[in-house]
Amino acid sequence: METVTSTPLAERPTLMPPALAPHVSPTAPDAAAPAWPLWQRVLFRFFCVYFVLQIEPWDWFRAIPGVSLVLRPYDAAMDWAVRTGNARLFHIRETLVPVNGSGDTSYAWARLCLLLSIAAVACLVWTVLDRRRAHYERPAYWLRLVVRYYIAMAALSYGIIKLFVLQMPFPALSQLATPLGDLLPMRLSWLFIGYSTPYETFSGAMETVAGLLLLYRRTITAGLFAATGAFLNVAMINLAYDVPVKLYASHLLLSCVFLLALDSRRLIDFLILNRPTAPTTAYDPIFARSWQRWGSGLVKLFIVYNILVAPLRSNWTRYQMARRPPNPGPFAAGVYNVRSFVVNGDTIPLTSTDSLRWRDVIFDNAGAGSVGTRDSVFWQRYRRGYFRYKPDTAAHTVDVWKTSAIPRDSTFLFTMRYEAPDTNSLRFITAIRGDSLRVDLVRTARHFQLTERQFHWISEYNR
Length: 463
Known about the structure:
Shape: elongated
Number of helices: 11
Helix content: 40-55%
Largest sheet: 8 strands, antiparallel, barrel
Number of domains: 2
Strand order of the largest sheet: 1-3-4-6-7-8-9-10
Structural class: alpha+beta
Low-confidence stretches: 1-29
Radius of gyration: 28 Å
């Protein structure tokens, strides 16, 4: 999609893998390019259909007014096909859960099965109907282009957000107070990365560099190696720690390996056999007319703006907001022990078997916190009840919501009246499930070593 002089298709290496493909004469026209072996043509047909349906490159242009409306019938048809295919063939789950915070939902697996099935059937039909075609040089160029930008988009998206330390934030007080054994593997890995700003920034820099290298033809191979290393690490973390983005990470890694495999002969000669190697021309544009070159340049500018410039601007704004001093609100952030818990006038003692009594309350910031209770009135996560709140300092009241990690999942719970005798004491008065409740809290000097600087050049003993 670059606006430079095009290179004849015959000068570009053939597809799967070039090591087994005949030599292409630099002067041969596209029609005279050497024939691909049957297995190579069959594999190309399968991967071409699969990658196009999986990547859906038309989605890249939804920012253009009217494109979403045009694509609405396709979206509806794909949704119908996924659900019908699951009901009649795949049976992943009786009721499919759409992709949400998790990318590995039953809907995502049903969609994967559908795309693989479509690719297999389309490959068979394509092979029968187009069995006399000798090669797919021109379609191969377009497939490379689509897969290349797919990888670049993901690398820049994940890389830029990590550069600003926004994907995995430093553990909140509620997370620091959660016993290690109560954490799920995914949350453990998330906190492991979020704890170290240098490591998260380094990870983001590697992904961002990979994405930038993929935008320039001369550095595509270097970008593919960088992206392969980055996404291999991501895929392994997702698999080893049960992070629910396994399918997406695996697709990104497969895409990198796919493009490297197309260039396998040249890479093996250079990296392993120590033989002289000519530069690849597989990504050189094939546009002969000036309007085609100008058009491709405009399309590339549009894509680069949406995958590089816009994310930089939006994440910079988010970074500045995150760096602002938080609004202290009426409650100081910290851990508060429950000194007394009174229900309908009766003081409830703390016991190991009581699942409703509050043990402590943690205010993470001016709008979120958690309660040490198993009461399902709160959103339960890692043996704590999470909530969001909005205080009214004039009326001395607090509105409390039950808010989970699911987008737009927020339920109003109750309004509490609060009293603050001093900076370390709080009293909440409210009603839950028709029962009156009074809770007296005292702020503790809870200390977490993990929040301190934990780096030593000289370490005499294991710590």
